[in-house]
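Q: I'm building a small set of examples for a reading group on sequence design. Run inverse folding on the following structure and report the sequence directly after it, with nothing in between.
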């Protein structure tokens, strides 16, 4: 399909032009106009680009692309090698950051809700962009350790659990990736447990002093599923072959 049609389809679904972000969303590096094969992954690392070349991809679709706010503008070192790979092989780079976090169906937060066993969930009001912090309730209260074990099984990695309530929990809030700073907003929303990807030193103190359980389940691990869902959506809508490639990352 034509690159322009693919971009229009994704824009229609994610509404990325309506969301202020730390990086450009959509086409970041221009390649060939006709797209027959897409490689999707969490981050546009060199390993993912090399896999795209191996698979003959015309486009790479990621959550974490390039050109972040306040990054050094020089095209040197790692950045030079990555861009050189894309340009040499005429491969498009498409990246969607916050729009892919907040989408109510395909988004990272919506996909993590499924891993948490939540059938109904909603955006926490007053937090921008809408959907970056989600909340929901389990059908019944369960020990937080049960949720931690479920996440470990679903995500395939160890979960850091800071337990403070020492009682079953039912009301959850979550933000995938580097969303640990939303712990205060999660507490204000009434959550008994807040789940994110990363943890900072101050997050544990906030958890203890606010009285809210906290889990860090991995930045990469919690953000694998949005980009995979978007790739599956594109393939179903267009018939363009989409390969999701999971480049292992313990962070």
């Amino acid at each position: 399909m034509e690159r322009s049609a693919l971009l229009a389809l994704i824009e229609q679904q994610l509404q990325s032009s309506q969301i202020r972000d730390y990086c450009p969303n959509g086409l970041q590096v221009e390649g060939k106009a006709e797209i027959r094969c897409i490689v999707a992954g969490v981050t546009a690392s060199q390993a993912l680009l090399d896999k795209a070349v191996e698979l003959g991809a015309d486009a790479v679709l990621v959550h974490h692309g390039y050109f972040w706010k306040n990054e050094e503008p020089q095209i040197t070192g790692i950045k030079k090698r990555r861009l050189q790979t894309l340009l040499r092989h005429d491969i498009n780079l498409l990246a969607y950051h916050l729009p892919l976090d907040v989408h109510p169906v395909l988004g990272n937060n919506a996909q993590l809700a499924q891993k948490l066993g939540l059938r109904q969930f909603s955006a926490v009001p007053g937090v921008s962009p809408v959907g970056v912090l989600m909340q929901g309730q389990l059908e019944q209260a369960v020990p937080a350790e049960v949720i931690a074990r479920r996440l470990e099984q679903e995500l395939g990695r160890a979960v850091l659990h800071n337990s403070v309530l020492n009682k079953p929990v039912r009301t959850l809030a979550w933000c995938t990736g580097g969303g640990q700073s939303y712990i205060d907003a999660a507490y204000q929303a009434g959550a008994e447990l807040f789940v994110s990807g990363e943890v900072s030193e101050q997050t544990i103190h906030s958890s203890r002093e606010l009285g809210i359980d906290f889990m860090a389940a991995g930045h990469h691990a919690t953000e694998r599923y949005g980009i995979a869902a978007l790739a599956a959506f594109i393939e179903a809508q267009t018939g363009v072959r989409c390969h999701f490639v999971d480049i292992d990352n313990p962070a």
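Residues 14 and 117 are 24 Å apart (CA to CA).
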